[in-house]
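Ticket #4471: structure export looks truncated?
Reporter: QA, pipeline team
Priority: medium

Steps to reproduce: submit the single chain below to the structure queue and open the exported record.
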Amino acid sequence: VWHLVVAAPVMLGFVAVAGPGPSLVRSLVMAAVGTAASVTGRRRDVPTAIAVAALALMLGDPLAVAAPGCQLTFAATVGVAAFLPRARSMVAEQLDRWAGGRPLHHVVSG
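Actual output as written to the record:
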């Protein structure tokens, strides 16, 4: 929980300095949703976080979702979220192949 005390003011300060653009609002809301899930012992859910971020943006400015920058930040986030599980498994397969089935810290340390 201590990281919330540090992260929340930093994130809010960054949005205050940079301005509440769609990508910053999206990332701030998604971080808040993920943090709330962790604190309450629930599983982090990217589709829910994306939906809550879109709703928050639309509540603030309903026309914001029509802006290309807003659409791009959500499209990029959905793309990363969709590809991440496959990317993780690809990296794990490569590391396993490289390590020859041995624990990675044994391979690195010699």
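Status: closed, not a bug. The export was complete when the record was re-opened. Leaving a note from the reviewer for reference: The two ends are 37 Å apart (CA to CA).
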